[in-house]
Amino acid sequence: MAETRHQPEPIIQVENLVAEYDSTRVLDGVSFEVQPREVLAIVGTSGCGKTTLLKHLIGLLVPRAGTVRLWGKDITAMEEDRLDALRARFGVAFQSGALFNSITAGENVALAMRERGMDKELIPILVRLKLSLVGLGDAAEKMPADLSGGMRKRVALARALALDPELVFFDEPSAGLDPVTAAGLDRLILTLRDLLDITVVVVTHELASIHAIADRVLMLAGARIRFLGPLSAVAQADDPVVQQFFRREPETLSTPER
Hints:
This protein is of the alpha/beta class. It has helices spanning 50-57, 80-86, 105-115, 123-133, 149-160, 179-196, 207-213, 240-246; strands at residues 12-21, 24-34, 39-43, 65-70, 73-74, 90-93, 167-171, 199-203, 216-221, 224-229.
C-alpha cells in the first residue's frame, strides 16, 4: 500500500471575507489559505483593500461576514483575552515602523517581553539577540531619531520577532527605502524565514520586493481576489487588470488606501 503523506494544516484560512466602510464594500467574498513557511505577498494598487485585509488577519477589524482562522482558530468570534493570547504567536511590523521615539531601540524591542511578564534579567539578553538577528546588535542604546529609515525598519522587525512568533506580518516593509536598502531588507526577510522557520505575509506594492521574496502572490482589485498563485503564473493570467499591475501600466484613479 502506498504511503499517504500528511498535508500540513494551513497557518491562515480566510473564507468568504466581507469588509465594509460606511456601506462601501472593500472586500467581497475573499478566500485563501497560507501554508507553513510560505511567503505570501498581498498586492494591488492604492485603495484596493490590502491594509484592510491585513487588519482583519491580525484581529484589529471584525468582518461584515466570513471567517479568519489562525492555526484553525476562528479569530472573528474570539473574545479579546483569547485573541490577545493568540497574538503572542505572531508578530507585526508596521509600515512606519511605529517605534516609540521617546525610548531606545532596545526598549522598543523589550516592550512585548515586559508585557508578557518575562524574567527581567533575561530581557536585555533577548533584546540584543533579536537586534543581532537583524544586524543591529550594537543599536540597543540608540534612539529611533538617530537611526536611518532602513535601521528603524530593522528595529521594528526585531520587535516583531520579540516573542519568537511562528507567523510575521509586514506592512509595506520597503516603503520609503532606497533600492539598495530595500533589497537588503528583502534578503533579511528570507534569511529569517529560513533560520527561524516562520511563515510570512507581506503587504506591498513594490514589484522588486514581490519578485525577490514571494512564493505566491495574492492580488486584490475591485474588492475581490484577481490573482492568486506563483509569480511564474502571472504571464499566463488573462485578466487585463493583473497584467496592467505587473507591467506597471498607468492605473485608473482609485480611492485612498484604507
